[in-house]
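hey can u check if this looks right to u? its 514 residues, i copy pasted from the old doc so theres a chance i mangled smth
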Amino acid sequence: MNALARDAVPEPAPIHVAVMALGGQGGGVLVDWIVALAERRGWVAQSTSVAGVAQRTGATIYYIELVPPDPLGRTPVLAQMPVPGDVDVLIAAELMEAGRAAQRGFITPARTTVITSTHRAFAVAEKMVPGNGVADGRRVIEQVRASAQRLVADDMQALAVQAGSVISASLFGALAGSGALPFEPEDFEAVVRDSGVGVEPSLRALRAGQACARDVPAPQVLAADAMVTAPRALPDRAASARMQPLLDRIRRDFPAEAWDMLGEGLQRTLDFQDLDHAVRYLDTVACLVALDAGEAARRAGHALSREAAHWIAVAMSYDDVIRVAELKSREERFARIRGEVDAGSDDVVGVEEYLHPRLEEIAGLLPQALGRRVLASPRMRRIGERLFRKGRRLHTMRLGGYLQLRLLAGLRRWRRGSLRHAQESEHLRHWLDTVQRVAREDYALAVELLRCRRLVKGYADTHARGSSRFDRLLAAGAGLLGRPDAAQRVAELLELALADASGKAFDQGLEGLG
């Protein structure tokens, strides 16, 4: 064939595939399967990757170019990275990675098939927000659907776990079912068989992903405000005979609108300490319920009782070193971790715990008088700060590390005599005294002051920062008593404090109150 004739034959059109995956999700395996799939049919395939390390164990972008056989035997020149507007198939192993791809222009309506899992692996920026910083997954789905030619979205992680495999296998199956590549389903299965590792579980996950792509189910995505587990119904609390008198008291003495939350609060405070602590919880809530009457309370659905039931339970089950050690050493937690890593009965799973209590947390474990002496002594503070300046790493798969946690958790029986419990009780008393005083004049403002407890969470530095903002907002809110917009202003300041980890917006909002 002469040169003119050769030039008249067009070069085969390549298929551009981009894969966005997090560390540990098997993105490299998925890419190897796609390359092997093309090469089985005589195509030319090339893959490249750019690894990231900043978010969620590193988000890696893989790029694959697949070129069909050239009848003239010409060697194609392939690119190293995807180009915005030039991606035929986009595979995202996590929902926000699909959103990032849309932001970067890798998804176009006239061209791109998007295959994404709808499960979430939260970014650092989502976790560090004092309030609920979880991005709204439904908005991401809507944006991706508007940007793509076709969308295949389902919880690929759940499909893989049900099959006993990993997410790369279910994504590979979704790719097979989407028809975005000109290969037969048998070719996809042959590639998995040829890999020789975890073949049967991978095939089950592949077929589950393939079926989901054919059916194109409506993506199930949790909204940002739906990440908190809903409270269980009150009748479920009758598992223990000793709880029955308390449940009867709730039905008899408290508004029905607060029953579910009171049931949750009972379980939480009982789990935190003991039955006496749960009784004290109901007694504390009852002091505010007595003020939750009248037309304003009925119109608001007895919001004062509901919020009191919620946030007093949170305040009375604070995170101290004892609580942290207990939660970290529970049997069900180890079972959950083994399930998350798909460990077999003979597998040894190692867990490294990180704890960084300050001197204040250690002194808080001591009896009141002794703890106050330690914190008041400059010499003891210098020694303590040197000892606890750095965090501690405990390996709970070793007997020594596990026993240290159980020893700390065992201090629970002496918690009521500790300095930390005295401090928390005093803080609770001051907060509720303020709410009771305000409730007599401004019902809506009292409800907002109860909700301000959302600012306090965690332990050590996290707890200290949240408590500082809470105290300032409580004082500022009480100072607004008598203003018609008092409740609205407190709600706005609370949202500012929850949305901004640095606290600058909150500080400016407080200054704006004059």
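The CA atoms of residues 36 and 191 lie 7 Å apart.
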